[in-house]
């Protein structure tokens, strides 16, 4: 156990075979919670006077203002809690209710907010998870009532729609759960159900998510007509002649954007040449970085040319899902806390488990704080890791009882400095991973 104290494995061979450049130490405390989303109670609207669940569904249909994480309806007190993914849709829904009816008492809920779970955040980014799923074809002889009764084993069902396919021979079912967590549970387990064996199942956009519907509409339009949805979110650093450490580059991005939220979704080196691609979650951060980087003399990175925006040829809805996951707290760094058994969760074990999902930039282990931090080059790698661990508890049984969540990359407090002995042991235990630049390069054209 002594070898675990302050063990710190630095980045190796990520951009160029070199030692990582030094960067200013971040002194902020570690921020590792179920989600790094701001715990604002203004994301939740409470409604009094809802006569039935059908009335609640009709109200949501009338005011499609944004994606809903979960709904809680209390028929005895005739009240409902609607928890949106953001403050803006909650305020928009509240404003519409107050302006359209006088029968309902609507206000922001100021109780303790429940943030989206890590499992839900990963599913949103990877598969566009929502409260709604499609079952195609619908089970034979199924009715709305019978299907809702069967699906309640996964969670409370808001409503079921059965509609004919375009061919007219078979029907498909659109199921709306009260929470994304219930829909996720259904997607993972419904194929194992004997009554639904062989049926296709996938997520579909929440009917209340008008913003996503607009993005889907934009994706079908020609790129020349789509201005607002086709803004570039990728940046190319050209003619990089010297070795640049990951931490140094991340520090430059942080200073240029001055943002508290995660801004970089990935960093990739071109398979040929000397260009580096930075992919941002939001186009405005990409534009801000380019302006700040090119205006500095000398350049903030030695031996580097200019930064240019890389235009998109078409709109990708997946980029929107990725940005949404980032706004909910997804990042490239995973924190494993509440570790009690260091014989099962060793540094070597963590390395082998998470190396399956992507090249590991850095692992930090703190025995005294029962904490491990694993950083990967792409947010998709981190989301895949968390999603896989949640979906395969038997394969990752060693992590039962621990708390695994995304953590902010900008608020990592330095853990006990490594000793030469520990560093040598780490290098021996984990030889550098080869970087397959061709496979890791994200398509930005």
Structure description:
- There is one protein chain.
- 30% of the residues lie in helices and 20% in strands.
- The radius of gyration is 24 Å and the shape is globular.
- Strands 1-15-16-14-17 form a five-stranded antiparallel β-sheet.
- It has helices at residues 53-62, 87-100, 118-127, 144-151, 180-189, 210-219, 246-257, 283-295, 317-328, 347-354, 379-391, 420-429, 437-440, and strands at 8-9, 44-48, 68-74, 79-84, 105-108, 132-136, 157-164, 171-177, 200-204, 234-237, 264-269, 276-280, 307-310, 333-337, 362-366, 371-375, 403-407.
- It is α+β, with helices and mostly antiparallel strands and 445 residues long.
- Helix 3 crosses helix 11 and helix 7 crosses helix 8.
Number of helices: 13
Shape: globular
Q: Which stretches are poorly predicted, pLDDT < 50 over at least 5 residues?
A: 1-40, 410-445
- How many strands in all? 17
Helix % is: 25-40%
Strand content: 15-25%
What's the N-to-C terminus distance? 48 Å
Q: What order do the SSEs take from the amino end to the carboxyl end, as H and E? A: EEHEEHEHEHEEHEHEHEEHEHEHEEHEHH
Radius of gyration: 24 Å
Mean pLDDT over the residues? 75
Write the SSE topology:
Layout (H helix, E strand, L loop, with lengths): L7 E2 L34 E5 L4 H10 L5 E7 L4 E6 L2 H14 L4 E4 L9 H10 L4 E5 L7 H8 L5 E8 L6 E7 L2 H10 L10 E5 L5 H10 L14 E4 L8 H12 L6 E6 L6 E5 L2 H13 L11 E4 L6 H12 L4 E5 L9 H8 L7 E5 L4 E5 L3 H13 L11 E5 L12 H10 L7 H4 L5
Antiparallel strand pairs: 1-15, 2-4, 2-5, 3-4, 6-8, 6-9, 7-8, 10-12, 10-13, 11-12, 14-16, 14-17, 15-16
Helix pairs in contact: 3-9, 3-11, 7-8
């Amino acid at each position: 156990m002594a070898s675990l104290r302050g063990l710190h494995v630095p980045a190796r061979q990520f951009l160029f075979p070199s030692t990582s450049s030094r960067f200013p130490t971040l002194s902020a405390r570690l921020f590792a919670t179920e989600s790094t989303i701001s715990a604002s109670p203004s994301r939740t609207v409470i409604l009094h006077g809802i006569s039935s669940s059908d009335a609640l569904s009709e109200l949501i249909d009338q005011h499609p203002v944004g994606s809903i994480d979960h709904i809680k309806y209390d028929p005895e007190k005739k009240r409902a809690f609607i928890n949106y993914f953001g403050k803006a849709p909650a305020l928009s829904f509240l404003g519409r209710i107050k302006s359209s009816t006088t029968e309902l008492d609507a206000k922001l809920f100021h109780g303790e907010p429940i943030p989206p779970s890590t499992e839900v955040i990963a599913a949103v980014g990877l598969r566009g998870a929502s409260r709604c799923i499609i079952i195609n074809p619908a089970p034979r002889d199924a009715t709305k009532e019978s299907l809702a009764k069967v699906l309640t084993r996964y969670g409370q069902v808001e409503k079921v729609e059965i509609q004919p396919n375009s061919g007219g021979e078979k029907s498909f079912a659109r199921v709306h759960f009260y929470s994304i967590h219930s829909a996720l549970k259904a997607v993972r387990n419904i194929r194992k159900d004997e009554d639904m064996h062989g049926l296709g199942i996938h997520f579909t956009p929440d009917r209340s998510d008008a913003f996503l519907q607009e993005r889907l509409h934009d994706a079908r339009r020609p790129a020349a007509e789509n201005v607002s949805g086709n803004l570039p979110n990728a940046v190319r650093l050209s003619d990089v002649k010297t070795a640049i450490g990951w931490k140094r580059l991340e520090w430059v991005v942080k200073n240029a954007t001055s943002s508290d939220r995660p801004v970089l979704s990935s960093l990739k080196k071109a398979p040929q040449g000397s260009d580096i691609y930075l992919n941002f979650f939001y186009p405005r951060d990409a534009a801000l970085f380019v302006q700040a980087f090119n205006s500095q003399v000398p350049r903030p990175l030695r031996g580097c040319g200019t930064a240019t925006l890389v235009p998109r040829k078409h709109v990708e809805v997946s980029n929107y899902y990725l940005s949404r996951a980032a706004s909910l707290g997804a990042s490239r760094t995973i924190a494993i806390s509440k570790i009690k058994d260091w014989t099962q969760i060793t540094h070597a074990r963590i390395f082998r488990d998470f190396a399956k999902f992507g090249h590991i930039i850095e692992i930090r282990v703190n025995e005294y704080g029962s904490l491990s931090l694993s950083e990967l080059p792409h947010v998709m790698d981190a989301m895949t890791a968390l999603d896989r661990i949640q979906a395969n508890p038997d394969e990752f049984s060693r992590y039962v009882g621990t708390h695994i969540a995304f953590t902010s990359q900008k608020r990592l407090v330095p853990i006990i400095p490594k000793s030469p002995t520990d560093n040598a042991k780490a290098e021996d235990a984990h030889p550098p991973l080869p970087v397959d630049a061709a496979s890791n390069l994200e398509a930005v054209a």
